[in-house]
Amino acid sequence: MLKIKRVPTVVSNYQKDDVADESVGCGRNCLGACCINGARLPLYACKKLEKSGAVEKLVISHEAKEPPVAFLESLVLGEWEDRFQRGLFRYDVTACETKVIPGKYGFVAQLNEGRHLKKRPTEFRVDKVLQAFDGNKFNFTKVGQEELLFQFDAGEDDQVQFFPCMPIDPENSPSVVAINVSPIEYGHVLLIPRVLDCLPQRIDHKSLLLAVHMTAEAANPYFRLGYNSLGAFATINHLHFQAYYLAMPFPLEKAPSKKMVTTVNGVKISELLSYPVRSLLFEGGHSMQDLSDAVSDACVCLQNNNIPFNILISDCGRQIFLMPQCYAEKQALGEVSPELLETQVNPAVWEISGHMVLKRKEDYEGASEENAWRLLAEASLSEERFKEVNALIFEAIGCSNPEEELEGSTVHQQNPSGSVNQKSNRTHGDPITNGTTSECLVLQ
Amino acid sequence: MSLTESSKSVFTEEEEKEESFNALWIKEALDELPHNFTITDPFISGHPIVFASLGFLKMTGYSKEEVIGKNGKFFQGPKTNRRSIMEIREAIREERSIQVSLLNYRKSGSPFWMLFHMSPVFGKNDGKVIHFVAVQVPISRREHHRKLRNVSGDLSDHFGSCRREVCFGNFVHQDRALPLECDDDDDDDEQGLEDWEHCEASESEKLKAVEAINNVLSILKRYIELSGRLVCGKRYCLRGADCLSSSLVISLGRIKQSFVLTNPCLPDMPIVYASDAFLTLTGYKRQEVLGQNCRFLSGVDTDFSVLYEMKECILKGQSCTVQILNYSNRKDKSTFWNLLHISPVRNASGKTAYFVGVQVEASCRNTESKELRPETKQLSVVGAVRVAVRSSFMVTC
Ligand SMILES: Cc1cc2nc3c(=O)[nH]c(=O)nc-3n(C[C@H](O)[C@H](O)[C@H](O)COP(=O)(O)O)c2cc1C
Ligand SMILES: [Zn+2]
């Protein structure tokens, strides 16, 4: 069994260090059977998505009634600011200094000294991407209702439906949007599909489509949704996506790409070039569902092959990045350099996208493109392994392997100084067979 | 709308006769240019096109009335490369020029490839962006080739580096050669067009774009120099450093509700940004409120204890919501109950850079059941302002 020790991020004020108490009538106004009766929350039901890219007009017509920005954006921002002013967050993220790291990629660095303190390291098993839901551990049915912003529903209607005060129906488990009390940018929220169904952290077609829907309805290219699988720095095994506003492009989004295949549904799959983490970009498709389903197929394949990964949904749901990774595995095997570990930066979806949240002032002040690159390159699969994984993915999606490239066109991942990553003697990201011999723990 | 004289729109209609004469003059001078180009005003909400050349109208098939007031993205469609759009968005945000191939749609719905070359126009005195200019050079079919998309190059080398005669000669030559050489390419129908992820312009088209933009810029420059003399020394002059960057103003212009930003670092905390809805609500003109402290909204019957309460919160750097009687400058000079929310807003270094004040007219508060709560709406303005301010200060250091 492979494990790493890390300080878990506190996403809810109700997250305890240890196994949560299971008292009845708990008095904290949670989502459990104890408190759910009579609970109400705004409900936003988005319009059904016809074509990809069909993210156009607001439904609200009369000007006086117009929300300040697009409807869903107003809802997220307004409810988030309300929780902010009520003091529900552990710190004021807008007081955290942030900057663009000089260089051609434009990595963004944030100094966030408050996010990881006050917690002791916990052990995380990193060699199993799929693990059963464990009701004894912290999960989102235990958060207080004041941390929930609204219910979010993939609509069946042609129009957006909004109900400011809708009872939560325990029989029909709602998807909810909640605050992350340790935000890494303004508007940091969690989307928890069918929260009462207690789904484990595992991509399924319906849930990913819901996440894509939300990105599309937010109608702001600076609002992205992200996902971390187990083994790729998810800390809570209860299905959730994250999202926040950062009004600039992520380096990942700016990376050039090269088309590999197009699926029968018109979804174009490309590989990113000259980016430290070898990644796939999915875009196009005859509908947003086509796009989402292609990514879901790929994720299910990765999950079944026990390969940890991250997802970034950007450009209002038009572009989805898929990043298989092996950092935690390397860390557990003791193959990550002490200097990288010392920074305590975990390359989860936001870091891999190029938004580096740094815990130490010296790391922030000395932040360089080189350092960012070195950390992210550790998370990347090797070239050979990436090829193997792609082959698995393309088979799962049902599109033939792209033609083997002609010589000379192999892409080497280069770091900014131009040197090609040296290949390690072991291929990382290999599926790790369960119940293996190596039992190793990494203490930070 | 701009804050300073020097960062004043070239096209804004003004009451003064001499200025509308100037606006006329500049439009006529620009109309004489043969190029396809548009000019936008980032200080107007929605960052609309304020001038479109005859060539541009002909190319797209729209009338002037249909184009003026629209954002440039009006011409995009499903096959427009998302990456190019992102690159343009970022160039605008960073106030730099960009040259990129772009697929657009005519009024008829037919797509076409063009070389899009955009450049910011800087005001004379304070160096702030006052406009953006973009030229659109159609890419001839003969020169299409399918290409891997590549990282946008740095344009500063291109810019202004070519001599007029050279470009012009080149362009004439290419143009004449075109019909003769355009032969067995007939499978370039729309199907083919739609398949292209990228369409590289020829060198001559790139030079043509540079030449065109230089011509437009030189006319604008002449105008700015001329009008700078004419409109000098009027009211509401804020010093250069106090006015907001075009990218911040573009972000703020998205927010359709009454609000102002004030700068606590300036004496008496003057207004540095006022939304269109604020002007509608209060009946003042933008130039009448910029540079003023918000107290002009209160009057004899305004409760002093509320004013005091606000002042306390501001001094402590806290947010507050109050109900206050305000006096408008609308035709009837009516008063209204203002449900006002004030919050400090931090920039990227975590320091308080502004206070935002969001006004809701109390009588408008009863809402339909299917709408956002007024409090949510009001706070969403605060949130949107925070996001805009935080990122606009995120500069490379
Ligand atoms: C002066 C100027 C002219 C523009 N002209 C066009 C145009 O002709 N076609 C187009 O597709 N986009 C054009 N744009 C770009 C869009 O207005 C917009 O900036 C772009 O789509 C990216 O921003 P968005 O995220 O708001 O869409 C122009 C922008 C400027 C500043
Ligand atoms: Zn409870």
TrEMBL record, chain A:
Keywords: Cytoplasm, Guanine-nucleotide releasing factor, Hydrolase, Nucleotide-binding, Nucleotidyltransferase, Transferase. Residues 410-424, 433-444 have a biased composition (Polar residues). It is found in: Cytoplasm. Residues 404-444 are annotated as: Disordered. GO terms for molecular function: guanyl-nucleotide exchange factor activity; hydrolase activity; nucleotide binding; nucleotidyltransferase activity. InterPro entries: GDPGP (IPR026506), GDPGP1_C (IPR058865), GDPGP1_N (IPR058866). One of its GO terms (cellular component) is cytoplasm. The keyword Nucleotide-binding applies. Its main location: cytoplasm. Residues 72-244 form the GDPGP1-like N-terminal domain. Pfam families: GDPGP1_C (PF26216), GDPGP1_N (PF26217). The keyword Nucleotide-binding applies. Residues 251-398 form the GDPGP1-like C-terminal domain. Signal peptide: none annotated. Belongs to the GDPGP1 family. This is GDP-L-galactose phosphorylase 1. It comes from Cardamine amara subsp. amara.
From TrEMBL, chain B:
PROSITE patterns: PAC, PAS. One of its GO terms (biological process) is response to blue light. Coiled coil: none annotated. Transmembrane segments: none annotated. Keywords: Chromophore, Flavoprotein, FMN, Photoreceptor protein, Receptor, Sensory transduction. GO terms for molecular function: photoreceptor activity. The keyword Acetylation does not apply. InterPro entries: PAC, PAS, PAS-assoc_C, PAS-like_dom_sf. Residues 96-151, 318-374 form the PAC domain. Residues 45-95, 271-293 form the PAS domain. NCBIfam families: sensory_box. This is Protein TWIN LOV 1. It comes from Cardamine amara subsp. amara.
